[in-house]
């Protein structure tokens, strides 16, 4: 199993996940051109993308979904509630491109379980993706670690997870009060500390890679997110459980290099 973030943050999100040259995308919140350019940067072909699964209807996750599905002639996978919310903004689709999913789905040979997150959208989900040998957790855009996230995301081999903000930077920063409240609320975004605490619980001895994602450009820095999470893990039991773990930060506009999970 392999994966890479193609873009990450409020300016647009997309992640490619694959195994044995069968790939799918999680969200496409960037233009088709940028998506194709970014795929090219990590030498992946769009022709091997078999579908797009949507986590929630915010534009930083769906901006390019309709256009990309039309271009590649591939289906879009989303829950009924998300379809209801986003369908108009996706543009014309063929009936077979509109796939309604419930709790789980198999896509590109991998099993995907939806894990409800807590966010100010109609519905929102993290994903637990199981390939032949590995599992990958993807969870961004959540104000809290939900009970479903706590139980489902423990013990995965790799994680793409949200370290959105540093609470102190958010407090002192120039965002208007309503936006600060929204980000801090249980329907907003996870802070570096919230994520560090969750990872200390989730990471078991099989954990190989963590990619910190959806960082705020205003209220966080890659260095601070990394430093905070690593420090919290060093103080936790996870330090003993997974000494091989590598933690990286997803770049905002360009892809992260392809991460290949080892046997
Ligand atoms: Zn987002
Ligand atoms: Zn969102």
Describe the protein:
The protein is α/β, with parallel strands linked by helices. It has a single domain, classed as Ribonuclease Z/Hydroxyacylglutathione hydrolase-like (Metallo-beta-lactamase, Chain A), CATH 3.60.15. It has ten helices and 14 strands. It has a seven-stranded mixed beta sheet with strand order 6-5-4-3-2-1-14. A hairpin with a 2-residue loop joins strand 7 (104-107) and strand 8 (110-116). Helix 8 runs parallel beside helix 9 (222-234). It is globular. The model has no long low-confidence stretch (mean pLDDT 97). Bound molecules: zinc ion (2 copies). The site of one zinc ion has 5 residues, from loops.
Please render the helix and strand layout as text.
Layout: E1 2-7, E2 14-19, E3 22-26, H1 32-41, E4 49-53, H2 59-62, H3 65-72, E5 76-79, H4 80-90, E6 98-101, E7 104-107, E8 110-116, E9 125-130, E10 135-139, H5 147-152, E11 158-162, H6 167-172, H7 177-184, H8 192-202, E12 209-213, H9 222-234, H10 238-241, E13 246-249, E14 259-260
Parallel strand pairs: 3-4, 4-5, 5-6, 10-11, 11-12, 12-13
Antiparallel strand pairs: 1-2, 1-14, 2-3, 7-8, 8-9, 9-10
Helix pairs in contact: 8-9
Residues 56, 58, 119, 121, 141 line the site of one zinc ion (ZN).
């Amino acid at each position: 199993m392999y994966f890479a973030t193609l873009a990450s943050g409020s300016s647009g999100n997309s992640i490619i996940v694959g195994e044995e040259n069968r790939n799918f995308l999680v969200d496409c919140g960037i233009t088709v051109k940028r998506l194709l350019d970014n795929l090219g940067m990590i030498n992946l072909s769009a022709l091997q993308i078999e579908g797009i699964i949507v986590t929630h209807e915010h534009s930083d996750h769906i901006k390019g979904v309709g256009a990309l599905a039309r271009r590649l002639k591939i289906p879009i996978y989303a829950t009924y509630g998300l379809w209801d919310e986003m369908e108009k903004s996706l543009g014309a689709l063929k009936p077979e491109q509109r796939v309604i999913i419930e709790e789980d789905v198999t896509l590109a040979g991998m099993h995907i379980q939806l894990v409800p997150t807590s966010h100010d959208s109609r519905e929102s989900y993290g994903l637990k993706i199981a390939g032949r040998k590995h599992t990958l957790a993807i969870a961004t855009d959540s104000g809290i670690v939900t009970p479903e996230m706590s139980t489902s995301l423990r013990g995965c081999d790799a994680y793409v997870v949200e370290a959105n903000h540093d609470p102190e930077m958010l407090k002192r920063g120039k965002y208007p009060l309503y936006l600060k409240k929204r980000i801090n609320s249980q329907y907003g975004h996870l802070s570096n500390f919230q994520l560090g605490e969750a990872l200390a619980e989730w990471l078991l001895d099989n954990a190989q890679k963590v990619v910190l994602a959806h960082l705020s450009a205003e209220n966080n820095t890659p260095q601070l997110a990394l430093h905070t999470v690593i420090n919290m893990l060093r103080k936790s039991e996870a330090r003993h459980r997974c000494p091989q773990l590598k933690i990286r930060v997803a770049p905002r506009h360009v892809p992260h290099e392809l991460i290949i999970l080892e046997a």
